[in-house]
Amino acid sequence: MKIDFQPKLLEGLRHYSREKFMADLMAGIIVGIVALPLAIAFGIASGVTPEKGLITAIVGGFIVSALGGSSVQIGGPTGAFIVIVFGIIQGYGLEGLAIATAMAGVMLVMMGLFRLGGIIKFIPYPIVVGFTSGIALTIFTTQVKDLLGLTVDKLPADCLSQWAVYFRHLDTINPLSLFIGVASILIIAVMPKISRKIPGSLVAIIIMTVVAYLMKEVWGITGIETIGDRFDISNEIPDPQPLHLDMATINQLLSPAFTIAILCAIESLLSATVADGAVSEHHNSNTELIGQGVANIVVPFFGGIPVTGAIARTMTNINNGGRTPVAGIIHAVVLLAIFLLLMPLIKLVPMACLAGVLVIVAYNMSGWRTVRSLLKNPKSDVAILATTFILTVVFNLTIAIEIGLLLAVLLFLRRVSENVQISVLKDELDVAQGTEMTQHETLNIAKGVEVYEINGPFFFGVATKFDEVMREMGDKPVVRIIRMRKVPFIDSTGLHNLQILVESSHREGIRVILSGVNPSVQETLYKSGLNKIIGNENICDHISKAVEKANALVELNEKLK
């Protein structure tokens, strides 16, 4: 098996120039500045310290750009992982998160090696919208405490219980925190109208940090909680820490790791696909999965959280001229410089301001306009959307993705089964029917011959449907012709049912002839040995030969009576 691993960095450096470097340099600096407040906010919201969020953006962002399959993808922590990371930390601790992230990285690498990048794109859109909207509501819920400055000792893990706690503690609202949080939201909302190049989240953090500092140090106003009040800040890159693996831990974390891997694959490839449209190129999905996988394997050793492609930062990169992975690498270097030189200033940022930043992130993730339009779609799509959303909010993302995928597969199989047609022909048959042929040829079907035509895949979803049609006929022909010209594939259940049909027909003295079997289906029949039961002479490549043979058998049967 040939490995599909072709990092875009190598392709981008082949014809690199000073002009491209200057464009990548400017884009990388701007994206690094944009990523700074988001990395800090996502780290804190996920349940780790601010520097862990930055380390994730630095290490993960560098690896994604260096090894990924997209020229403009920017990797780092994203809002989609807040819920699941927080849940894993609550249940398994920081070491459990590190192991689950590394396991997810291995899964992503395996997906890329086995060329599953294209398959990920077929995950139904209602599932993606459902859990994204659910995550948005959950993120907003987790930020209510800091946004309002509520005095709560410890919040429960699930969304509904958190709201119950909030309502019980509404009398502890801190007006100063509420002011800073609302002001941050307004600044972020207004900034795009002033300038789209300057990130509103960064402006909000700078202004509100200055305001909070003046209130505390100049005017003597206390009661505004900052990052430094809650966390010990360090600007030292931690030494790599070993992961202690055993089979019990791996089994326990397999489900969360799978969720991280699937979510990372979906978000990364979705981001890369959106980027393709903006820069008129095509990413390599398998290489992108391998790059994302390596990033998620390495980052946990430095205490980081899951890495994935970030749509907002990727589009910022594109809009500012970035066209090769060098821009993503520069973005990581900029974050590293900020981490080493300016990290002590981060402790002055008010928690309410970060809550405001995440409220805007949650609003942008909610996709309420998309949800509104999807509600007009078929009921099955609405059911998938609603189920995934409710499970994400009430339970957790792991259950939501697993059940959402299962529901989508079942509904897909039902739709395919409903579209597979099985028709029965007697007396005469038009060879040109169902084709683009203009010259019609009518075949006379002798009495005692039945022709069953299957239009669609003969798989486990329709195998029983074929049996039902056979039973409905109720009569006993001399020959049964199964026309398979429109059967693209047959699975093991279809083979099993076909074998049962042939064997039962033979016991009743009925000959079975297959017609129009395409090469791939014929190969499957030969590999399974079913051709020996049917008889190679009874597998015809065209319906005319099958009907001629069947009519001859009926004539012979009449003579023998």
What would your notes on this structure say?
This protein has 561 residues and is an alpha/beta fold. It has two domains: 17-368, no CATH class; 421-560, STAS domain (Transcription Regulator spoIIAA). Helix content is 66%, strand content 7%. It is built from 23 helices and nine strands. It has helices spanning 8-14, 18-46, 50-67, 82-113, 117-120, 125-148, 159-168, 175-194, 200-217, 227-230, 247-279, 285-298, 311-319, 325-346, 351-366, 368-374, 379-394, 397-419, 460-473, 492-507, 519-528, 530-534, 543-560; strands at 75-76, 308-309, 421-425, 428-430, 442-444, 449-455, 479-486, 511-515, 539-540. Strands 3-6-7-8-9 form a five-stranded mixed β-sheet. A two-stranded antiparallel ribbon has the order 1-2. Strands 4-5 form a two-stranded antiparallel sheet. Helix 20 (492-507) links the parallel strand 7 (479-486) and strand 8 (511-515). Helix 2 packs antiparallel against helix 13 (311-319) and helix 6 packs parallel to helix 7 (159-168). The longest helix is centred in the middle third of the chain and has 33 residues, at 247-279. It starts with 7 loop residues before the first helix and ends with a helix.
Radius of gyration: 31 Å
Number of DSSP helical runs: 23
Q: End-to-end span in angstroms?
A: 58 Å
Let me know the average pLDDT. 86
Whole-number total of structural domains = 2
Q: What structural category characterises the helix and strand content?
A: alpha/beta
Shape from CA axes? elongated
Strand percentage, roughly? Answer: 5-15%
Q: Into which percent range does the helicity of residues fall?
A: 55-70%
Are there runs of 5+ residues with pLDDT below 50, and where? Answer: none
Number of extended strands: 9
Strand order of the largest sheet: 3-6-7-8-9
Characterize the largest beta sheet: strand count, sense, and whether it forms a barrel: 5 strands, mixed
